[in-house]
Specification:
Layout lengths: L1 H35 L11 E5 L5 E3 L11 H4 E2 L3 E2 L10 E2 L2 E5 L40 E11 L1 E10 L4 E8 L2 E7 L12 E6 L6 E8 L9 E9 L2
Amino acid sequence: MKYPIIIGLLVALAAFAGCGDGSNGDTSRASGQAAMAAPVASAAHGGMSSSTGTGGNPQVCDDSTVVDNADGNTRCENLTEVKNVVMAPANTVWADKVDGFSTEYGPENYGAKQAVGAPNVYPTSGDQPKAWAQSMMDADNEFIKVGFSTPIVAEAVWVFETFNPGAISKITVTAEDGDHVVYESTPMKNGFGTCAHVLSVSTKTCSPISAVRIDLDSKTVEGYNEIDAIGLIPAN
């Protein structure tokens, strides 16, 4: 009579162990699904994309390097000559269209379209017809907005100012996830000196950028505030 009792106990124990294995498997799958559903940090808030760049590292879209010294005394020679010319990276993407502007001195020379494409005035300084100029000196609410036909994931915006630089008060980028104000400042009286200047600011977003708007405080920096080119530095 002992053997049937022992066999019955063994069968019961085996059935119990089988239920335990199934339960553990379900718990493991649930944990895996929860991990897959965890949100990825937005690239728009912190300048880092979940996509990978060179070497499999997350793409970083935040280059706050100041490429041009704002002090006119050390940047300029003989008032209008740039001592150290700033060369744009070979992969810089230049604006290829005008999306809007406040005023322009002329439709051709000094027109808004002169801010499109690679620099063709810089490092020359002074009043040059191949740069955009406003219709009047020292007017309120002057701006230009340029576009990029193919949106670019960029780490920085470069603006080439070639006459009375330093009047830029705000830079806004238009990206797939909305508008981002990436630069805001109260210009200094008389700006950055008399020679050409390159303003570089971080985009702080890995969302592809399709347009850049430049706002000017022309009353603070007297005279025409001319802009030669606006480019995006692609993210690494």
